[in-house]
Amino acid sequence: QVQLVESGGGLVLPGGSLRLSCAASGSVFNIDFMAWHRQAPGQEREFIAAIYRNNQTFYADSLKGQFTISIDSRKYVVDLQKDSLRPEDTAAYFCGAGSGAVYWRTDYWGQGTQVTVSS
Predict the structure, then answer these.
(1) Closest CA to 13 of 79, 87, 67
(2) Distance of CA 104 to the CA centre of its chain
(3) 98 and 106 in contact (C-beta within 8 Å)?
(4) How many CB atoms are closer than 10 A to CB 20?
(5) Cα–Cα distances in Å, from 102 out to 33, 98, 115?
(6) DSSP-assigned beta bridge partners for residue 66
(7) Which of the 8 DSSP states describes residue 35?
(8) Which 3 state secondary structure label does DSSP give 38?
(9) What's the confidence (pLDDT) of residue 22?
(10) Which of 57, 64, 67, 74 maximizes the CB count within 10 A of its CB?
(11) Contacts with 20 (C-beta within 8 Å, 6 or more apart), sequence order
């Protein structure tokens, strides 16, 4: 089993920045990639980005250019950054991890961290 713990959420002013972090532990040898998804109230969970241990990245087409994903492969820690936050970025942000080539489908989930963009 793999455990994922997110950190870094909270209340952010519009125009502010987001930096989330997720640390994996447990059977990390099962992990090929780590990813971020988000779920806004009343909406389905949305894929944001994934990164493999060799630093190959994939972003959702609709969100490309907005977010930056990075990984410390030795520590199994993945970060997500975004500047110029808007109220519509308000969501629960979930860290995921998995193996294989289907990077938008994760095997493990964190519990999520809430990000609220509001003045």
Answers:
(1) 87
(2) 11
(3) yes
(4) 22
(5) 9, 8, 26
(6) none
(7) E
(8) strand
(9) 98
(10) 67
(11) 6, 7, 8, 9, 36, 79, 80, 81, 93, 95, 113, 115
